[in-house]
Amino acid sequence: MPGVLALRHNKAMALEFAARISRIPIYPAAESYGREDLVLLASNESPYPPLPAVIEAIQAAAPALNRYPDPTNSALRRRLAERHEVPPERIAIGNGSCDILLAAGEALLEEGAELIYAWPSFSVYPHLAAASGARAVTVPLDDQERHDLPAMAREITVATRLILICNPNNPTSTALPLTAIEEFLEQVPDHVCVILDEAYCEFNLLDDASASVALLAKHSNLVLLRTFSKAYSLCGARVGYALCGSERLVAALNQVRQPFFCNLLAQSAASAALEHGDEIEQRVAMTVAERISMGERLAALGLQVSDSQANFCWVSSDLLREHEREVLERLRERGFIVRAGSALGSPGHLRISYGTSEQDERFLVALADVLEQLPAGERLAR
Ligand SMILES: Cc1ncc(COP(=O)(O)O)c(C=O)c1O
Questions:
Q1: What is the mean pLDDT of residues 321-340?
Q2: C-alpha dihedral (16, 20, 21, 25), degrees to nearest 10
Protein backbone atom coordinates (compact mmCIF):
# COMPACT_ATOMS: atom_id res chain seq x y z
CA MET A 1 0.00 0.00 0.00
CA PRO A 2 2.30 2.74 -1.23
CA GLY A 3 -0.26 5.45 -0.34
CA VAL A 4 -0.12 4.62 3.40
CA LEU A 5 3.67 4.46 3.37
CA ALA A 6 3.87 7.85 1.70
CA LEU A 7 1.46 9.26 4.30
CA ARG A 8 3.60 7.85 7.12
CA HIS A 9 6.68 9.34 5.56
CA ASN A 10 5.02 12.74 5.25
CA LYS A 11 3.86 12.61 8.84
CA ALA A 12 7.41 12.02 10.01
CA MET A 13 8.61 14.95 7.96
CA ALA A 14 5.99 17.16 9.59
CA LEU A 15 7.28 16.75 13.16
CA GLU A 16 7.99 20.05 14.84
CA PHE A 17 11.12 19.95 16.98
CA ALA A 18 12.21 22.24 19.80
CA ALA A 19 14.38 25.09 18.47
CA ARG A 20 17.39 23.73 20.37
CA ILE A 21 17.44 20.59 18.19
CA SER A 22 18.75 22.67 15.29
CA ARG A 23 21.48 24.09 17.57
CA ILE A 24 22.72 20.98 19.38
CA PRO A 25 25.79 19.56 17.61
CA ILE A 26 25.88 15.84 16.85
CA TYR A 27 28.65 14.25 18.91
CA PRO A 28 31.48 13.22 16.56
CA ALA A 29 31.90 9.63 17.82
CA ALA A 30 34.74 7.65 16.23
CA GLU A 31 33.61 4.80 13.98
CA SER A 32 35.26 2.20 16.11
CA TYR A 33 32.37 0.36 17.80
CA GLY A 34 32.35 -3.34 16.96
CA ARG A 35 35.58 -3.14 14.94
CA GLU A 36 37.55 -5.58 17.02
CA ASP A 37 39.49 -6.43 13.85
CA LEU A 38 41.13 -3.00 14.15
CA VAL A 39 43.42 -1.51 16.78
CA LEU A 40 41.21 1.21 18.29
CA LEU A 41 43.30 4.28 19.06
CA ALA A 42 40.60 6.89 18.42
CA SER A 43 38.52 7.24 21.61
CA ASN A 44 41.01 7.44 24.48
CA GLU A 45 39.78 4.13 25.82
CA SER A 46 41.94 1.82 27.91
CA PRO A 47 43.59 -0.91 25.82
CA TYR A 48 43.34 -3.20 28.86
CA PRO A 49 40.15 -5.15 29.70
CA PRO A 50 38.39 -4.55 33.04
CA LEU A 51 40.15 -6.19 36.01
CA PRO A 52 39.06 -9.83 36.64
CA ALA A 53 37.63 -8.85 40.06
CA VAL A 54 35.48 -6.21 38.38
CA ILE A 55 34.12 -8.70 35.88
CA GLU A 56 33.33 -11.03 38.79
CA ALA A 57 31.46 -8.23 40.58
CA ILE A 58 29.38 -7.57 37.45
CA GLN A 59 28.56 -11.28 37.18
CA ALA A 60 27.64 -11.42 40.86
CA ALA A 61 25.29 -8.43 40.49
CA ALA A 62 23.55 -9.66 37.32
CA PRO A 63 20.92 -11.94 38.99
CA ALA A 64 19.37 -8.85 40.65
CA LEU A 65 18.70 -7.13 37.32
CA ASN A 66 14.96 -7.72 37.67
CA ARG A 67 15.01 -4.99 40.37
CA TYR A 68 15.72 -1.29 39.88
CA PRO A 69 19.16 -0.27 41.09
CA ASP A 70 19.83 1.80 44.21
CA PRO A 71 18.69 5.29 43.09
CA THR A 72 21.05 6.94 45.57
CA ASN A 73 24.13 4.94 44.51
CA SER A 74 24.88 4.72 48.21
CA ALA A 75 27.56 1.97 48.23
CA LEU A 76 29.55 3.61 45.44
CA ARG A 77 29.26 7.07 47.00
CA ARG A 78 30.39 5.68 50.37
CA ARG A 79 33.48 4.09 48.78
CA LEU A 80 34.28 7.29 46.91
CA ALA A 81 33.77 9.28 50.10
CA GLU A 82 36.31 7.09 51.92
CA ARG A 83 38.75 7.27 49.04
CA HIS A 84 38.65 11.06 48.63
CA GLU A 85 37.65 12.13 52.15
CA VAL A 86 34.69 14.07 50.77
CA PRO A 87 31.27 13.60 52.45
CA PRO A 88 28.95 11.31 50.41
CA GLU A 89 26.36 14.14 50.28
CA ARG A 90 28.78 16.10 48.12
CA ILE A 91 29.32 13.30 45.59
CA ALA A 92 27.21 13.02 42.43
CA ILE A 93 27.22 9.86 40.31
CA GLY A 94 26.48 9.81 36.59
CA ASN A 95 25.83 7.55 33.63
CA GLY A 96 29.36 8.45 32.56
CA SER A 97 30.79 11.83 33.49
CA CYS A 98 29.13 13.24 30.33
CA ASP A 99 25.80 12.71 32.04
CA ILE A 100 26.92 14.95 34.91
CA LEU A 101 28.22 17.60 32.49
CA LEU A 102 24.91 17.75 30.64
CA ALA A 103 22.97 17.78 33.90
CA ALA A 104 25.11 20.70 35.11
CA GLY A 105 24.23 22.58 31.93
CA GLU A 106 20.56 21.90 32.52
CA ALA A 107 20.70 22.84 36.20
CA LEU A 108 22.74 26.03 35.81
CA LEU A 109 22.18 27.48 32.33
CA GLU A 110 19.31 29.19 30.56
CA GLU A 111 18.79 31.99 28.06
CA GLY A 112 20.63 35.11 29.14
CA ALA A 113 23.28 33.11 31.04
CA GLU A 114 26.88 32.62 29.89
CA LEU A 115 29.20 29.63 29.89
CA ILE A 116 32.99 29.94 29.43
CA TYR A 117 35.30 27.22 28.15
CA ALA A 118 38.55 26.90 26.23
CA TRP A 119 38.69 25.77 22.61
CA PRO A 120 39.65 23.31 21.26
CA SER A 121 38.46 21.19 24.14
CA PHE A 122 36.08 18.28 24.80
CA SER A 123 33.49 17.96 22.01
CA VAL A 124 30.56 17.73 24.44
CA TYR A 125 31.05 21.25 25.86
CA PRO A 126 29.29 23.08 22.97
CA HIS A 127 26.23 20.95 23.71
CA LEU A 128 25.61 22.72 27.04
CA ALA A 129 25.00 26.17 25.63
CA ALA A 130 23.14 24.86 22.58
CA ALA A 131 20.73 22.85 24.74
CA SER A 132 20.03 25.62 27.22
CA GLY A 133 20.08 28.73 25.01
CA ALA A 134 22.90 30.20 27.12
CA ARG A 135 25.74 32.07 25.38
CA ALA A 136 28.98 30.10 24.93
CA VAL A 137 32.14 32.17 25.36
CA THR A 138 35.07 30.19 23.94
CA VAL A 139 38.65 31.20 24.72
CA PRO A 140 41.53 30.02 22.48
CA LEU A 141 44.27 27.91 24.04
CA ASP A 142 47.68 29.52 24.62
CA ASP A 143 50.71 28.97 22.36
CA GLN A 144 51.50 25.71 24.19
CA GLU A 145 47.96 24.45 23.57
CA ARG A 146 47.01 24.82 27.22
CA HIS A 147 44.10 26.70 28.79
CA ASP A 148 44.72 30.46 28.84
CA LEU A 149 43.31 31.02 32.32
CA PRO A 150 44.05 34.79 32.52
CA ALA A 151 42.10 35.25 29.25
CA MET A 152 39.27 33.08 30.60
CA ALA A 153 39.13 35.15 33.80
CA ARG A 154 38.74 38.30 31.70
CA GLU A 155 35.58 36.85 30.13
CA ILE A 156 33.71 36.54 33.43
CA THR A 157 30.65 38.84 33.50
CA VAL A 158 27.55 39.19 35.69
CA ALA A 159 25.86 36.68 33.36
CA THR A 160 28.49 33.93 33.83
CA ARG A 161 27.05 30.84 35.52
CA LEU A 162 29.48 28.10 34.57
CA ILE A 163 33.16 27.73 33.61
CA LEU A 164 34.59 24.46 32.27
CA ILE A 165 38.29 23.68 32.61
CA CYS A 166 39.53 20.45 31.05
CA ASN A 167 42.77 19.39 32.75
CA PRO A 168 44.46 17.49 31.09
CA ASN A 169 42.73 18.89 28.03
CA ASN A 170 41.07 16.72 25.41
CA PRO A 171 42.08 16.80 22.53
CA THR A 172 45.44 18.55 23.06
CA SER A 173 46.57 16.25 25.95
CA THR A 174 48.25 19.19 27.73
CA ALA A 175 47.78 20.10 31.39
CA LEU A 176 48.24 23.10 33.63
CA PRO A 177 49.77 22.79 37.09
CA LEU A 178 47.27 22.91 39.91
CA THR A 179 48.80 26.15 41.22
CA ALA A 180 47.60 27.95 38.07
CA ILE A 181 44.09 26.60 38.58
CA GLU A 182 44.16 27.61 42.24
CA GLU A 183 45.13 31.15 41.25
CA PHE A 184 42.29 31.24 38.71
CA LEU A 185 39.72 30.06 41.26
CA GLU A 186 40.62 33.02 43.51
CA GLN A 187 39.34 35.30 40.75
CA VAL A 188 36.00 33.56 40.19
CA PRO A 189 32.97 34.90 42.11
CA ASP A 190 31.41 32.35 44.48
CA HIS A 191 28.12 32.14 42.58
CA VAL A 192 29.85 30.96 39.38
CA CYS A 193 30.24 27.17 39.17
CA VAL A 194 33.65 25.92 37.98
CA ILE A 195 33.79 22.34 36.68
CA LEU A 196 37.31 21.01 36.58
CA ASP A 197 37.00 18.11 34.16
CA GLU A 198 39.64 15.62 35.33
CA ALA A 199 38.72 12.67 33.11
CA TYR A 200 42.45 11.97 32.57
CA CYS A 201 43.87 13.09 35.95
CA GLU A 202 45.26 9.65 36.82
CA PHE A 203 47.72 9.99 33.91
CA ASN A 204 48.84 13.53 34.80
CA LEU A 205 52.33 13.63 36.30
CA LEU A 206 52.31 17.40 36.99
CA ASP A 207 50.27 16.92 40.17
CA ASP A 208 49.03 14.01 42.24
CA ALA A 209 45.49 13.01 41.20
CA SER A 210 44.31 13.57 44.77
CA ALA A 211 45.75 17.10 45.07
CA SER A 212 42.81 19.00 43.58
CA VAL A 213 40.45 17.57 46.22
CA ALA A 214 41.89 19.97 48.82
CA LEU A 215 40.56 22.90 46.75
CA LEU A 216 36.97 21.86 47.49
CA ALA A 217 37.33 22.97 51.11
CA LYS A 218 38.08 26.53 49.96
CA HIS A 219 35.77 26.77 46.96
CA SER A 220 32.15 25.70 47.40
CA ASN A 221 31.55 26.57 43.71
CA LEU A 222 34.10 23.97 42.51
CA VAL A 223 33.28 20.57 40.99
CA LEU A 224 35.89 17.91 40.23
CA LEU A 225 34.56 15.74 37.43
CA ARG A 226 36.01 12.21 37.29
CA THR A 227 35.30 9.04 35.35
CA PHE A 228 35.75 5.29 35.49
CA SER A 229 35.98 5.29 31.67
CA LYS A 230 39.71 5.85 31.24
CA ALA A 231 42.17 4.63 33.90
CA TYR A 232 39.61 2.12 35.24
CA SER A 233 38.92 0.47 31.83
CA LEU A 234 35.14 0.82 32.24
CA CYS A 235 33.88 3.15 29.52
CA GLY A 236 31.44 0.48 28.36
CA ALA A 237 29.79 0.48 31.81
CA ARG A 238 29.14 4.26 31.73
CA VAL A 239 29.92 5.56 35.18
CA GLY A 240 31.43 8.83 36.30
CA TYR A 241 31.28 10.99 39.40
CA ALA A 242 31.65 14.53 40.62
CA LEU A 243 33.21 15.67 43.88
CA CYS A 244 31.34 18.88 44.63
CA GLY A 245 32.01 21.85 46.88
CA SER A 246 28.30 22.09 47.68
CA GLU A 247 25.53 19.61 48.53
CA ARG A 248 22.98 21.86 46.86
CA LEU A 249 24.59 21.27 43.47
CA VAL A 250 24.40 17.49 43.91
CA ALA A 251 20.66 17.83 44.64
CA ALA A 252 20.16 20.03 41.55
CA LEU A 253 22.08 17.56 39.33
CA ASN A 254 19.80 14.78 40.56
CA GLN A 255 16.65 16.88 40.08
CA VAL A 256 17.18 17.28 36.34
CA ARG A 257 17.86 13.59 35.63
CA GLN A 258 15.79 10.43 35.36
CA PRO A 259 15.53 8.53 38.67
CA PHE A 260 17.83 5.54 37.97
CA PHE A 261 20.62 7.14 35.98
CA CYS A 262 23.37 4.71 36.99
CA ASN A 263 22.58 1.07 36.33
CA LEU A 264 23.16 -1.82 38.72
CA LEU A 265 26.09 -3.36 36.82
CA ALA A 266 27.84 0.00 36.51
CA GLN A 267 27.47 0.70 40.24
CA SER A 268 28.83 -2.77 41.11
CA ALA A 269 31.71 -2.52 38.63
CA ALA A 270 32.82 0.89 39.83
CA SER A 271 32.61 -0.07 43.51
CA ALA A 272 34.71 -3.17 42.85
CA ALA A 273 37.27 -1.25 40.77
CA LEU A 274 37.88 1.11 43.70
CA GLU A 275 39.09 -1.87 45.73
CA HIS A 276 41.95 -2.46 43.30
CA GLY A 277 43.78 0.85 43.20
CA ASP A 278 47.23 -0.81 43.03
CA GLU A 279 46.42 -2.72 39.86
CA ILE A 280 44.93 0.41 38.29
CA GLU A 281 48.10 2.30 39.15
CA GLN A 282 50.21 -0.37 37.45
CA ARG A 283 48.17 0.02 34.28
CA VAL A 284 48.47 3.80 34.43
CA ALA A 285 52.26 3.37 34.76
CA MET A 286 52.28 1.18 31.64
CA THR A 287 50.41 3.87 29.71
CA VAL A 288 52.78 6.58 30.94
CA ALA A 289 55.72 4.44 29.76
CA GLU A 290 54.05 4.21 26.34
CA ARG A 291 53.60 7.97 26.37
CA ILE A 292 57.31 8.57 26.89
CA SER A 293 58.40 6.11 24.24
CA MET A 294 55.74 7.15 21.69
CA GLY A 295 56.50 10.85 22.22
CA GLU A 296 60.13 10.37 21.21
CA ARG A 297 59.36 8.14 18.29
CA LEU A 298 56.56 10.28 16.86
CA ALA A 299 58.87 13.30 17.02
CA ALA A 300 61.50 11.25 15.16
CA LEU A 301 58.95 10.84 12.36
CA GLY A 302 58.95 14.63 12.00
CA LEU A 303 55.68 15.29 13.84
CA GLN A 304 55.15 18.02 16.43
CA VAL A 305 54.01 16.29 19.61
CA SER A 306 52.21 18.20 22.37
CA ASP A 307 53.36 17.71 25.95
CA SER A 308 50.94 14.93 26.90
CA GLN A 309 49.73 14.35 30.44
CA ALA A 310 46.95 12.02 29.30
CA ASN A 311 46.45 8.53 27.82
CA PHE A 312 46.64 9.95 24.30
CA CYS A 313 48.80 12.30 22.30
CA TRP A 314 48.14 15.17 19.92
CA VAL A 315 50.44 15.46 16.94
CA SER A 316 50.57 17.85 14.02
CA SER A 317 52.43 18.64 10.80
CA ASP A 318 51.86 20.52 7.55
CA LEU A 319 51.81 17.21 5.76
CA LEU A 320 48.93 16.01 7.93
CA ARG A 321 47.03 19.19 7.12
CA GLU A 322 47.41 18.48 3.39
CA HIS A 323 46.79 14.73 3.52
CA GLU A 324 44.65 14.01 6.58
CA ARG A 325 42.11 11.85 4.75
CA GLU A 326 44.74 9.71 3.05
CA VAL A 327 46.66 9.23 6.29
CA LEU A 328 43.50 8.08 8.09
CA GLU A 329 42.45 5.78 5.25
CA ARG A 330 45.87 4.20 4.89
CA LEU A 331 46.20 3.67 8.63
CA ARG A 332 42.79 2.02 8.60
CA GLU A 333 43.86 -0.25 5.72
CA ARG A 334 46.77 -1.28 7.92
CA GLY A 335 44.38 -1.97 10.84
CA PHE A 336 44.50 1.21 12.98
CA ILE A 337 41.91 3.89 13.80
CA VAL A 338 43.04 7.25 15.18
CA ARG A 339 41.11 10.51 15.52
CA ALA A 340 41.20 13.16 12.80
CA GLY A 341 42.00 16.68 14.00
CA SER A 342 39.44 18.07 11.57
CA ALA A 343 36.65 16.14 13.35
CA LEU A 344 37.70 17.99 16.51
CA GLY A 345 37.99 21.43 14.91
CA SER A 346 41.79 21.28 14.42
CA PRO A 347 42.84 20.24 10.89
CA GLY A 348 46.48 19.25 10.59
CA HIS A 349 46.38 17.23 13.82
CA LEU A 350 45.84 13.63 14.83
CA ARG A 351 44.79 12.46 18.27
CA ILE A 352 46.24 9.06 19.01
CA SER A 353 45.31 7.05 22.11
CA TYR A 354 48.11 4.91 23.51
CA GLY A 355 47.59 1.17 23.13
CA THR A 356 49.48 -1.75 24.59
CA SER A 357 53.22 -1.63 23.85
CA GLU A 358 52.77 -4.33 21.21
CA GLN A 359 49.99 -2.33 19.49
CA ASP A 360 51.99 0.88 19.67
CA GLU A 361 55.05 -0.79 18.12
CA ARG A 362 52.98 -1.97 15.17
CA PHE A 363 51.25 1.39 14.91
CA LEU A 364 54.55 3.28 14.64
CA VAL A 365 55.71 1.00 11.83
CA ALA A 366 52.39 1.56 9.99
CA LEU A 367 52.48 5.32 10.50
CA ALA A 368 56.09 5.61 9.30
CA ASP A 369 55.14 3.64 6.23
CA VAL A 370 52.05 5.78 5.54
CA LEU A 371 53.96 9.05 5.94
CA GLU A 372 56.80 7.86 3.77
CA GLN A 373 54.41 7.11 0.94
CA LEU A 374 52.88 10.58 0.92
CA PRO A 375 54.05 12.88 -1.89
CA ALA A 376 56.29 14.91 0.39
CA GLY A 377 57.12 11.98 2.67
CA GLU A 378 60.82 12.36 2.15
CA ARG A 379 60.62 15.69 4.05
CA LEU A 380 59.41 13.81 7.12
CA ALA A 381 61.25 10.54 7.11
CA ARG A 382 64.70 10.99 8.54
C1 LIG B 1 37.59 15.54 28.88
C2 LIG B 1 36.53 14.50 28.96
N3 LIG B 1 35.58 14.64 29.87
C4 LIG B 1 34.61 13.74 29.99
C5 LIG B 1 34.56 12.64 29.17
C6 LIG B 1 33.40 11.73 29.29
O7 LIG B 1 33.68 10.50 29.71
P8 LIG B 1 32.57 9.50 30.25
O9 LIG B 1 31.21 10.07 29.93
O10 LIG B 1 32.85 8.24 29.56
O11 LIG B 1 32.80 9.45 31.73
C12 LIG B 1 35.54 12.45 28.20
C13 LIG B 1 35.49 11.30 27.30
O14 LIG B 1 36.26 11.09 26.42
C15 LIG B 1 36.55 13.42 28.08
O16 LIG B 1 37.51 13.31 27.17
A1: 95
A2: 170
